Fold this protein.
Amino acid sequence: MLDKNSEKILRSLKKQEDNFRKKENTENETSKISFQDIKDSFPSYSYISVIFWLNYLLEERYIYNQIENREHVLTIDDIQNRNAKFVIGGKGTAYLKNKKYKMMAAIIPLSLSIVSLIISLISL
């Protein structure tokens, strides 16, 4: 399980990729998000916190960066040179879809139980 901030990063990367796929004119558009855009999503958190979240997601291969031969590593030089851009991987997409199904699997039986309880109380 990922924390809510890591999930927020995954959702923003997924949204960017979906927007990229929907657009017909993709010359100036990209499915990648820069480090600064991700950091701007977390104004109250420090840079080091965001870097740790990104490093974890990179190491676990939820996301990838575009730097050749270092797809799973984020260095300070990459951030300072503004080379760090990220894209969601297949594992990240699968995690977001699986999380939705897990939540539905928990909510549906609970709601059915509540409805059946109400019906049984009414029939008394």
User: Anything to note?
Assistant: The first helix runs from residue 4 to 22.
